[in-house]
Amino acid sequence: MLSVRQVAKMIDHSLLRPELTLADVAAGCDLAARYDVASVCVKPSDVPFAAARLSGTGVLVGTVVGFPHGAHATRIKVAETAAALADGAAEIDMVLNIGRLREGRDDDVRADVAAVVVAASGAAVKVILENAYLTDAEKRRGCELAEEAGARYVKTSTGFAPTGATLHDVRLMRAAVSAHVGVKAAGGVRTLDVLLSMVDAGATRFGATTTAAMLDELATRHSA
Question: Among this protein's residues, is 43 annotated catalytic?
């Protein structure tokens, strides 16, 4: 069984709901530090606050670009990325251009992702496909284009579409990219058993809001 620390370091604690206040973000950052997760993923406007709150904890700050629809102009995604890094973000979760992918405009999709990768200057870029709107063939092609563009991870979902991560999609995405590209599952990963099943399917990072409940349950299982 994976250790509590191993699972914690797979979790990006999500603080993306539009109604969250800075008090909510503070509480989420404190929880993330207490459980020593991989990162928090916050809204762009919250990056400076989260970076200051988590300074010295070892928990990274990530944020979103082109969120949630992926339809921002590439130059805006690049500007968002540069601003996020300047504000203290260490990881970027970007939404690819979903419509362009569905149209088969592969060069446009690849260039959009590549521009963000360049702007990220070595910071990890996770490319969100938003699988709820894609066929399996489109999901595979999106993963391949993201890897070609230099992304560090491919990600199932924003958490704001009709459906989120599924075991089928995690397996498909794992098979579509090489071993040095990770798979992040997000949207609906709310129980420990779901998370562990997705680890078995090939996921290496998770977007989660029920972080404490899942890690507490894993600790209880280890002590049983």
Answer: no
How many angstroms separate the CA atoms of 163 and 131, rounded?
8
Would you give the DSSP letter of residue 46? G
Residue 177 has a pLDDT of 98
Q: What is the largest CA-CA distance in the chain?
A: 53
Q: Are 175 and 205 a contacting pair, CB within 8 Å?
A: no
Decide if 184 is catalytic. yes
Asked whether 206 and 189 are in contact (CB, 8 A), the reply is yes
What's the CA gap between 182 and 126, in Å, rounded?
A: 9
Residue 155 appears among annotated catalytic residues: yes
Positive or negative CA dihedral for 89, 95, 97, 103?
positive
Instruction: Using alpha carbons, list the distances in angstroms from residue 114 to 86, 149, 196, 219.
Output: 19, 5, 31, 40
Q: Per the residue annotation, which of 12, 46, 93, 169 is the catalytic one? A: 93
Domain extents for the chain?
4-223
Give the tokens for residue 209.
């809001």
Overall pTM surpassing 0.85 (yes/no): yes
Tens of pLDDT, residue by residue over 155-167, are 999 999 999 999 9
- For 38-68, how does the pLDDT look when each residue is reduced to its tens digit (9 = 90+)? 999 999 999 999 999 999 999 999 999 999 9
| The one catalytic residue among 12, 87, 155, 169 | 155
The superfamily (CATH) of domain 4-223 is Aldolase class I (3.20.20.70)
